[in-house]
Amino acid sequence: MTKLAEQIKQGADQAWESLSDGWREISTRASGALTRFWPAVQSTENAPDNTSGGHPSQTKGPRMTGWAFLAADVIESADAVTVRIEAPGMQREDFNVALHGDVLTVWGEKRIDREVSEGQWRVVQSAYGNFRRNVELPAAVKADQTKATYRDGVLRIELPKSDEARPRRIAVNTA
Protein backbone atom coordinates (compact mmCIF):
# COMPACT_ATOMS: atom_id res chain seq x y z
CA MET A 1 0.00 0.00 0.00
CA THR A 2 1.35 3.41 -0.87
CA LYS A 3 2.00 6.08 1.70
CA LEU A 4 -0.86 8.22 0.35
CA ALA A 5 -3.28 5.29 0.55
CA GLU A 6 -2.22 4.62 4.16
CA GLN A 7 -2.79 8.28 5.07
CA ILE A 8 -6.23 8.22 3.46
CA LYS A 9 -7.13 5.00 5.28
CA GLN A 10 -5.89 6.39 8.60
CA GLY A 11 -7.87 9.61 8.06
CA ALA A 12 -11.01 7.66 7.19
CA ASP A 13 -10.61 5.46 10.28
CA GLN A 14 -10.23 8.55 12.50
CA ALA A 15 -13.28 10.19 10.91
CA TRP A 16 -15.35 7.02 11.39
CA GLU A 17 -14.28 6.73 15.05
CA SER A 18 -15.15 10.39 15.67
CA LEU A 19 -18.55 9.97 14.02
CA SER A 20 -19.23 6.81 16.06
CA ASP A 21 -18.29 8.60 19.29
CA GLY A 22 -20.67 11.44 18.39
CA TRP A 23 -23.59 9.08 17.77
CA ARG A 24 -22.95 7.24 21.04
CA GLU A 25 -22.94 10.57 22.90
CA ILE A 26 -26.19 11.68 21.25
CA SER A 27 -27.79 8.33 22.07
CA THR A 28 -26.73 8.54 25.71
CA ARG A 29 -28.03 12.08 26.13
CA ALA A 30 -31.28 11.45 24.28
CA SER A 31 -32.14 8.35 26.31
CA GLY A 32 -32.80 10.58 29.31
CA ALA A 33 -35.16 12.82 27.33
CA LEU A 34 -37.32 10.07 25.89
CA THR A 35 -39.87 8.34 28.04
CA ARG A 36 -40.87 4.76 27.28
CA PHE A 37 -44.55 3.90 27.68
CA TRP A 38 -45.49 0.23 27.99
CA PRO A 39 -49.14 -0.55 27.26
CA ALA A 40 -51.04 -1.49 30.38
CA VAL A 41 -52.49 -4.99 30.48
CA GLN A 42 -56.18 -4.91 29.56
CA SER A 43 -58.23 -7.10 31.87
CA THR A 44 -61.75 -6.78 30.42
CA GLU A 45 -63.07 -8.11 27.15
CA ASN A 46 -64.65 -4.74 26.30
CA ALA A 47 -61.35 -2.90 26.59
CA PRO A 48 -59.91 -1.40 23.42
CA ASP A 49 -57.78 -3.77 21.35
CA ASN A 50 -54.60 -1.86 20.54
CA THR A 51 -52.65 -4.78 19.18
CA SER A 52 -54.19 -5.09 15.75
CA GLY A 53 -51.94 -4.22 12.90
CA GLY A 54 -54.65 -2.72 10.72
CA HIS A 55 -55.29 0.85 9.67
CA PRO A 56 -56.05 3.21 12.63
CA SER A 57 -59.68 3.54 11.52
CA GLN A 58 -60.04 -0.26 11.66
CA THR A 59 -58.95 -0.65 15.28
CA LYS A 60 -61.42 -0.85 18.15
CA GLY A 61 -59.57 1.77 20.18
CA PRO A 62 -56.80 4.31 19.82
CA ARG A 63 -53.50 3.24 18.32
CA MET A 64 -51.01 3.95 21.07
CA THR A 65 -47.48 5.07 20.60
CA GLY A 66 -44.66 3.41 22.49
CA TRP A 67 -42.45 6.48 22.90
CA ALA A 68 -43.22 10.03 23.92
CA PHE A 69 -41.79 12.97 25.73
CA LEU A 70 -42.58 13.92 29.27
CA ALA A 71 -41.27 17.45 28.81
CA ALA A 72 -38.98 18.29 31.71
CA ASP A 73 -37.32 21.52 32.81
CA VAL A 74 -34.41 21.43 35.24
CA ILE A 75 -33.78 24.80 36.89
CA GLU A 76 -30.79 25.33 39.16
CA SER A 77 -30.61 28.22 41.62
CA ALA A 78 -28.07 28.94 44.33
CA ASP A 79 -30.07 26.96 46.91
CA ALA A 80 -32.06 24.34 45.01
CA VAL A 81 -32.70 22.31 41.88
CA THR A 82 -36.27 22.36 40.59
CA VAL A 83 -37.57 19.78 38.13
CA ARG A 84 -40.83 20.50 36.29
CA ILE A 85 -42.42 17.68 34.29
CA GLU A 86 -45.47 18.30 32.12
CA ALA A 87 -47.92 15.45 32.56
CA PRO A 88 -51.46 16.68 31.88
CA GLY A 89 -54.54 14.61 32.59
CA MET A 90 -53.10 12.67 35.51
CA GLN A 91 -53.68 12.55 39.26
CA ARG A 92 -51.02 12.96 41.94
CA GLU A 93 -51.56 9.31 42.90
CA ASP A 94 -50.36 8.27 39.42
CA PHE A 95 -46.76 9.32 40.14
CA ASN A 96 -43.88 7.68 41.96
CA VAL A 97 -40.73 9.72 42.58
CA ALA A 98 -37.35 8.41 43.75
CA LEU A 99 -33.87 9.81 44.04
CA HIS A 100 -30.84 7.57 43.49
CA GLY A 101 -27.61 9.54 43.81
CA ASP A 102 -27.76 12.32 41.22
CA VAL A 103 -30.61 10.77 39.19
CA LEU A 104 -34.25 11.64 39.84
CA THR A 105 -36.65 8.94 38.60
CA VAL A 106 -40.35 9.54 37.98
CA TRP A 107 -42.56 6.61 37.04
CA GLY A 108 -46.22 5.64 37.06
CA GLU A 109 -49.13 4.94 34.79
CA LYS A 110 -51.16 7.13 32.47
CA ARG A 111 -54.63 5.70 31.80
CA ILE A 112 -57.32 6.26 29.19
CA ASP A 113 -60.38 7.43 31.08
CA ARG A 114 -62.55 8.50 28.18
CA GLU A 115 -65.26 6.65 26.32
CA VAL A 116 -66.44 7.17 22.77
CA SER A 117 -69.96 6.01 22.01
CA GLU A 118 -70.16 7.43 18.48
CA GLY A 119 -67.59 7.66 15.75
CA GLN A 120 -64.20 6.04 15.51
CA TRP A 121 -60.76 6.89 16.79
CA ARG A 122 -58.75 8.54 14.03
CA VAL A 123 -55.64 9.96 15.69
CA VAL A 124 -54.29 9.58 19.20
CA GLN A 125 -50.96 11.29 19.75
CA SER A 126 -50.85 10.86 23.50
CA ALA A 127 -49.03 7.93 25.05
CA TYR A 128 -50.76 5.76 27.64
CA GLY A 129 -49.51 2.99 29.85
CA ASN A 130 -46.66 2.63 32.33
CA PHE A 131 -43.90 5.22 32.03
CA ARG A 132 -40.48 5.97 33.49
CA ARG A 133 -38.36 9.12 33.13
CA ASN A 134 -34.84 9.60 34.53
CA VAL A 135 -33.51 13.12 35.04
CA GLU A 136 -29.84 13.66 35.81
CA LEU A 137 -29.44 16.41 38.41
CA PRO A 138 -26.72 19.06 38.02
CA ALA A 139 -25.81 19.18 41.74
CA ALA A 140 -25.93 17.14 44.94
CA VAL A 141 -29.23 17.55 46.81
CA LYS A 142 -30.76 16.78 50.20
CA ALA A 143 -33.01 13.81 49.49
CA ASP A 144 -34.77 13.98 52.86
CA GLN A 145 -35.96 17.56 52.20
CA THR A 146 -37.29 16.97 48.67
CA LYS A 147 -40.90 18.03 48.03
CA ALA A 148 -43.12 17.12 45.08
CA THR A 149 -46.41 18.75 44.08
CA TYR A 150 -48.78 18.22 41.14
CA ARG A 151 -50.98 21.04 39.93
CA ASP A 152 -52.50 22.05 36.58
CA GLY A 153 -50.81 19.20 34.71
CA VAL A 154 -47.30 19.94 36.00
CA LEU A 155 -45.35 17.80 38.45
CA ARG A 156 -42.95 20.10 40.33
CA ILE A 157 -40.13 18.60 42.40
CA GLU A 158 -38.11 20.91 44.66
CA LEU A 159 -34.71 19.50 45.67
CA PRO A 160 -32.72 21.67 48.11
CA LYS A 161 -28.99 21.59 47.36
CA SER A 162 -26.68 19.91 49.82
CA ASP A 163 -24.38 22.21 51.76
CA GLU A 164 -21.40 21.04 49.71
CA ALA A 165 -23.14 21.95 46.44
CA ARG A 166 -24.11 25.48 47.49
CA PRO A 167 -21.83 28.29 46.41
CA ARG A 168 -19.88 29.95 49.20
CA ARG A 169 -18.51 33.43 49.27
CA ILE A 170 -14.87 33.52 50.21
CA ALA A 171 -13.51 36.69 51.76
CA VAL A 172 -10.34 38.06 50.23
CA ASN A 173 -7.94 39.43 52.81
CA THR A 174 -4.97 41.73 52.30
CA ALA A 175 -1.60 40.19 52.83
Description:
The chain is of the alpha+beta class and 175 residues long. The protein has a domain at 32-40 and 52-112 and 121-160: Immunoglobulin-like (Sandwich). The chain is 17% helix and 31% strand. The chain has one helix and nine strands; from the N terminus they run αβββββββββ. It has one helix at residues 3-31; strands at residues 34-38, 67-69, 72-76, 80-86, 95-100, 103-110, 129-136, 147-151, 154-160. A five-stranded antiparallel sheet has the order 2-1-7-6-5, with no helix packed on it. A four-stranded antiparallel sheet has the order 3-4-9-8, with no helix packed on it.
Question: In a few lines, what is going on in this structure?
Answer:
Helices cover 17% and strands 31% of the residues. The chain has one helix at 3-31; strands spanning 34-38, 67-69, 72-76, 80-86, 95-100, 103-110, 129-136, 147-151, 154-160.
Shape: flat
Low-confidence stretches: 42-65
> What's the CATH class label of the domain at 32-40 and 52-112 and 121-160?
Mainly Beta
- Number of DSSP helices? 1
CATH-scheme architecture of the domain at 32-40 and 52-112 and 121-160: Sandwich
Strand order of the largest sheet: 2-1-7-6-5
SS class: alpha+beta
User: Rounded to an integer, what's the Rg over CA atoms?
Assistant: 24 Å
The CATH topology label of the domain at 32-40 and 52-112 and 121-160 is Immunoglobulin-like
Q: How much strand content do the residues show? A: 25-35%
Q: Can you summarize the main beta sheet?
A: 5 strands, antiparallel
Distance between the termini: 66 Å
Looking at how many chains there are and whether they match, the oligomeric state comes to: single chain
Query: Residue share in helices?
Result: 10-25%
**What is the total tally of β strands?**
9
Element pattern in H and E: HEEEEEEEEE
Integer average pLDDT: 76
